[in-house]
Design brief:
- This is HDOD domain-containing protein.
- It holds the Pfam family HDOD.
- By secondary structure, the protein is mainly α.
- 67% of the residues lie in helices and 0% in strands.
């Protein structure tokens, strides 16, 4: 099971700068800690940043949320719920910050994949036990958030990712470690921790390419293992949906995921097929 030595954080980051948590996210987090959350107050906080509010509404109106037309932050809160809107805020804030680097990468495909993976993780959490839809969504969104930061720092990072996808016998992150002395799971873990995500999500981000961690004897909390297994399924579904020819991680981890959930491989294939049908239906409804 991967672990972080707190004394080695600067060494592990290798000069990668973790963006500070925005003030508005801290304000929203404090508001959500109240026993009686004020939805008007939450709406006002989000609407203070016009670009943020617009970004939240754009995602809320996407096929990922059923293609329903949401006209305002107030309406999004009513239709989608506070936790879902909070996750959309995080989504947009991460996009804004990571797109504003000195050498912003072309990230449209990355964010499409991240948004779909987060939504599919939440969809799967309703079918398989072990975590909530909201936690699954947050993890799905953040699990690769270290990649854009490494892409901004290293001009050849895309080439290393291609090599990691094609390398058998090693974990994805081991290929990154060999190239840079760090990897996107470590950077993502530190990013998520600085932004105040739960320990369960942070540990899942750190370990999401380490499928040995799905063994109950490995010592990870069950919910963290659930997130790692859900992510493996979600990535398989999203790759098929977006016509991405990449099944290396699926082949490395599917047996461990079957064992963890106590399901046969055919059961997982059936879940994948069902999710693909639902995604296609959502896309068709949006296009109609």
């Amino acid at each position: 099971m991967p672990a972080i030595d707190e004394r080695q954080i600067d060494t592990l980051l290798k000069g990668v700068q973790i963006p500070p948590c925005p003030a508005i996210l801290n304000q929203l987090s404090r508001e959500m800690e109240h026993e009686a959350v004020s939805l008007p107050r939450v709406s006002r906080l989000i609407n203070q940043d016009v670009a943020l509010a617009a970004g939240v509404l754009k995602i809320a109106n996407s096929p990922l949320f059923g293609g329903r037309q949401v006209g305002s932050v107030n309406e999004a809160l009513s239709l989608l719920g506070l936790k879902n809107v909070f996750n959309l805020v995080i989504n947009q804030l991460v996009r804004n910050i990571q797109a504003a680097g000195e050498r912003p990468p072309a990230m449209a495909r990355f964010w499409d994949s991240a948004a779909y993976t987060a939504t599919v993780c939440a969809m799967l959490a309703a079918q398989l036990p072990g975590t909530s839809r909201e936690t699954a969504y947050s993890f799905g969104l953040f699990r690769d958030c270290g990649m854009p930061l490494l892409m901004q720092k290293y001009a050849d990072y895309k080439d290393v990712l291609k090599r990691a996808n094609a390398t058998e016998g090693l974990r994805y992150t081991q290929v990154e470690d060999a190239a840079y002395g760090t990897n996107h799971a470590v950077v993502g873990y530190l990013f998520a921790r600085q932004w105040g995500l739960s320990d369960v999500i942070c540990q899942a981000i750190l370990s999401h390419h380490d499928f040995v961690s799905l063994d109950h004897e490995a010592g990870l909390p069950d919910e963290t293992c659930t997130l790692i297994a859900l992510n493996l399924l979600a990535e398989r579904i999203v790759n098929l949906f977006l016509r991405v020819n990449d099944e290396a991680e699926w082949l490395k981890g599917k047996h461990a995921a079957c064992t963890f959930f106590g399901l046969a491989e055919q059961d997982l294939d059936d879940i994948v097929d069902d999710a693909l049908v639902r995604l296609e239906q959502a896309r068709a409804a949006k296009a109609a």
